[in-house]
Specification:
Helix content: 40-55%
Strand order of the largest sheet: 2-1-3-4-13
Number of helices: 15
CATH class of the largest domain: Alpha Beta
Structural class: alpha/beta
Bound molecules: iron/sulfur cluster
Low-confidence stretches: none
CATH topology of the largest domain: Rossmann fold
Amino acid sequence: MTIAQIQDEIRALKKERDICVLAHVYQAREIIEVADFTGDSYAVSVSAQKTANSRVVMCGVRFMAETVKLLSPEKTVYLANQEAGCPMADQLNAARLKAAAEKYPGHAVVCYMNTTAEIKAMSEVCVTSSSAVKIIRAMEEHDILFVPDCNLGAYIAKQIPEKTIRLINGGCPIHAAVGAGDVAAARRAHPGALLLVHPECVPDVVTAADYVGSSSGIYDYAVKSDSREFLIGTETSIAEHLQYACPDKRFYYLDKKMMCHNMKATTLMDLYHCCAGDGGEEITMPPELIASAGKCIDRMIELGG
Ligand code: SF4
């Protein structure tokens, strides 16, 4: 079968089996083309919550499918490829967070969206990369323990000097793999290009950037910008999607190391099998975990709007 034929089969299965397909922005083009919603993990979870579909298939990584389930516990939620995990989310388990919280007593735990449901259940509030500064500023608490990404945490702390923000070692190995030397090499290769980076990058890279924002922020900035050339400092798929959206502009990877193999694990055929009912993994969680992890997302909505 061709890609187009498989996509038609998936569209038919979605109707037949009452399925909403979500695709994170780091997914492959052929998956995004058949998705009902594309965006960052929180945005697509909210979109799925508003649909009438009884089934939801997440094309992304495990914590994203868990977030869909937390927001829509009454729906049957699947992760299209059960092997797709997030190394950053997997770095932090309950024992490690408990030890960090004991080291910093009296600190409010703020977790990044890229965490397991278990960690969300132990946190006061959850944040995304685009809402973190607004939410932490709005919190009454002065002393914050931010987990698990120390690079994003350092970026947030710099913008909220009036609060004490403690960090632990952790972060995205894809974004953290790029350093100042890679920036210098990319600038030499493309001297006219603007550098747009994600705050999961190390501080040296963030400081050197012309724009810092979430993957959706980078995408929107590049689309609207009058500049013609861009170095994209986030997962490589964003540069690829931008090239389709703006064929008259040029997009370069900040470094080809920025490819997330977990995000690329899901194939169109995985999605096809999951929609057909013979693939993927149904995400289930005890009701008490859904209730306690859901609370930190509710607090995020309350503080961030
Ligand atoms: S890009 Fe980083 S944060 Fe995103 S899924 Fe891959 S490892 Fe996790």
